Each structure stands twice: as structure tokens, then as C-alpha cells.
Amino acid sequence: MGMVTESQFHVLAVDDSLFDRKMIERLLQKSSCQVTTVDSGSKALEFLGLRESNESDDPNAPSSSPVTHQEVEINLIITDYCMPGMTGYDLLKRVKESAAFKSIPVVIMSSENVPARISRCLEEGAEEFFLKPVKLADLTKLKPHMMKTKLKKESENPAKEDNAVLKPEIREEEPSVIEILPLHQEVEQEPMLSNNKRKAMEEVISTDRSRPKYNDITTLV
Amino acid sequence: MNTVVAQLQRQFQDYLVSLYQQGFLDNQFTELRKLQDEGTPDFVAEVVSLFFDDCSKLINSMSRSLERPENVDFKQVDSGVHQLKGSSSSVGARRVKNVCISFKECCDVQNREGCLRCLQQVDYEYKMLKTKLQDLFNLEQQIVQAGGAIPQVNIN
């Protein structure tokens, strides 16, 4: 069966442990996602095209806006919490503070069950918090979050092909986003951030350039 | 019907079940096996191998940190135990994981003797598991070479 890679979700996975990167990569592939793995928060930002420093108007900046840096389309970022240097929480904050990327759903993973940590991440805008070891069943929770970004982009690009993963519920003309109910929703885990999410999604920048093809997994170490 | 294959498959199944029953493996190993398919037939073996490499490295560095009684780097030991606990948990290495839990407790109260005991135990457990899984993978290989398929084993 021919896999239409252009329509697959592309996930950026961040973890400093090689072992954990291998695990999450396989889990995501098994869930039909394209995966790029990096071993640190700063590499993740680099991959996204976000400069380390504040990207507000800097006359000395090499290029103009974040839009031109965004060469890859990422539908979700999944990151470990405990990492040296930039923690998953720090990365989450940086992404949510960025105009270009704040609409990308972020999921945090941790081997430690610390309620204060979990609520802090969710409050900062994380969509989910997964306790390690992450299971295949956990990843089914990701699809609805990724669908939102994809459909939004496709509603702004009528020429693009349909999403092959799930049947699209929006026709091109419709400006609003339809909420898709996830399969296994655990209500306790998800606070109602829908207002913030919708607002954030208005600012998703999409381009007409064709998306680069990633034939295989890219692993940056 | 190839009875050699059937026999091997039976052997494989019994052996795997016994590993669960004896507490070497837990449910997470089942999850790991789910991630393997025709496209990635060596996934479990690769991950497990990575895990054992980690064990060896971490045990060595923790051993060095614990070496001199007057100068123990408990922070380093704690970091090592944390990593080991995480990866053993992800792999389904139940006994190794359980030792790590005790190990962490000894580390938290800076009990060097306790840490040394746990270190020895973790070393023993991972090597034991390594042998067991090697036998399991050998059985798998024999099945494949005999033209059979690896059975799906349901653990209750």
C-alpha cells in the first residue's frame, strides 16, 4: 500500500537519552507518524528555525521573519521533561511564546509522577502529560491535537491534497475549526484550554511552498 | 505441518511465559513486542541490547563513584539509578527495576553500604536477564530459520 508521506503527521521528539529516543521514535512510527528526533531543547528550537535569543525586531538579524525559517511542518512536539540545559518545560515555554510556533501542540513526558509538575506544564499550554514508559495506547491521544493543526493549514490551502490519515471534516471554504473528539479521552488530564488554543491557531502561518519530503527518519544527535 | 516448527514455537511460548511468571519481565515487555513487526524484526533485540549496554556503563560509573567511602558522589549515583530505573521500566525488566527502587532509597539517605549491595544486585539481575533473553532470541531465530512465525503470546 502506497503511503502518502506528505499527509502523514510529522512529530518532533526531544529526549536526551538515546534509549528513550529509540523508544519514542518506534512508538510514533508504529502510530503512522513521521519522526524527527533530537537530543536537546536547543536542537529542537534550531530544527524549528527559532533562534536562541529573542526573535523580536533585531536589525542585525540575518533574515527577516520566523516564517522564512520554517522549512519543516511539525504537527506535534513531544519532549522529555528532565533534560540537562533546557528542560522540557523551558522548551514548552519557548514554543508557546513564539508567534510562529505556539500553535504546535506540545506533549511532555516524564518518568516521575509529580502533580505540581504536571499541572504547571498543562497550565503553560502542554496538551498532554505522559508518564513514562509511554505506551502505544497513549499515542492515540495525540491524533486529535495534530489533526487540528493539519486541518487548519489545509483549510487555508485549498490546492493541497486531502489528509490520508483521517477523513477531513472541513471543506475548504469553512473558516472555523471543528472540534474532533479524541478516541480515548481522559477528561481529568485535559483542562479546557480550547479558547487559548483557538486564538493561537488563528496565527498559524502557512505557505504555498510544497513541503519538503522526508523519506526516512531524520535523527539529529 | 512442520512439527519441528510447532515444537520450537511451543518451547518459545513456554519459555517466555516462564520469564513473566518468575518476575523477570512485566507487562512493559509485552508493549515492547507490540512495536516489532515485519518491517522492524530486530527492534526488541536492539532495544534490549541498548539497555544492557546502558546497564554495564552505568554500573561501572556508579561503582567508581561509590569506591572511596570518604568521597562518595551520591549525586552521580542518584543520576545513574534514575536512568537505570527509567530504562529498565521501559523495557519491562521487572527485577532490575525493583532493585533500582531500593537502590534509590539507599542513595537518598546516603547509605553507602546499602548502595554497594544494590549495585551488586543490579549487576547480577541484569546479567541474569541478559542470559535469559539471549536464550529467548535464539529460540526465535531457530523458529524463523525453520520457516515458522514467532507466536503471539498472551500473558495474563
UniProtKB/TrEMBL annotation, chain A:
Its main location: nucleus. InterPro entries: ARR-like (IPR045279), CheY-like_superfamily (IPR011006), Sig_transdc_resp-reg_receiver (IPR001789). The modification 4-aspartylphosphate is found at D80. Residues 10-147 form the Response regulatory domain. Keywords: Cytokinin signaling pathway, Nucleus, Phosphoprotein, Transcription, Transcription regulation, Two-component regulatory system. GO terms for cellular component: nucleus. The keyword Disulfide bond does not apply. GO terms for biological process: circadian rhythm; cytokinin-activated signaling pathway; phosphorelay signal transduction system. The keyword Phosphoprotein applies. It is found in: Nucleus. Belongs to the ARR family. Type-A subfamily. PANTHER family: TWO-COMPONENT RESPONSE REGULATOR (PTHR43874), TWO-COMPONENT RESPONSE REGULATOR ARR8 (PTHR43874:SF139). Functions as a response regulator involved in His-to-Asp phosphorelay signal transduction system. Phosphorylation of the Asp residue in the receiver domain activates the ability of the protein to promote the transcription of target genes. Type-A response regulators seem to act as negative regulators of the cytokinin signaling. This is Response regulatory domain-containing protein.
UniProtKB/TrEMBL annotation, chain B:
GO terms for cellular component: cytosol; nucleus. InterPro entries: AHP1-5/YPD1, HPT_dom_sf, Sig_transdc_His_kin_Hpt_dom. Keywords: Acetylation, Cytokinin signaling pathway, Cytoplasm, Nucleus, Phosphoprotein, Two-component regulatory system. It holds the Pfam family Hpt. Its main location: cytoplasm. CDD domains: HPT. Gene3D superfamilies: HPT domain. The modification Phosphohistidine is found at H82. The keyword Glycoprotein does not apply. It is found in: Cytoplasm, Cytosol; Nucleus. It comes from the Eukaryota. GO terms for molecular function: histidine phosphotransfer kinase activity; protein histidine kinase binding. Residues 40-143 form the HPt domain. The keyword Metal-binding does not apply. GO terms for biological process: cytokinin-activated signaling pathway; phosphorelay signal transduction system. PROSITE patterns: HPT (PS50894). Functions as a two-component phosphorelay mediators between cytokinin sensor histidine kinases and response regulators (B-type ARRs). Plays an important role in propagating cytokinin signal transduction. Histidine-containing phosphotransfer domain (HPt) contains an active histidine that mediates the phosphotransfer. This is Histidine-containing phosphotransfer protein. It comes from Brassica carinata (Ethiopian mustard). The lineage of its organism: Eukaryota, Viridiplantae, Streptophyta, Embryophyta, Tracheophyta.
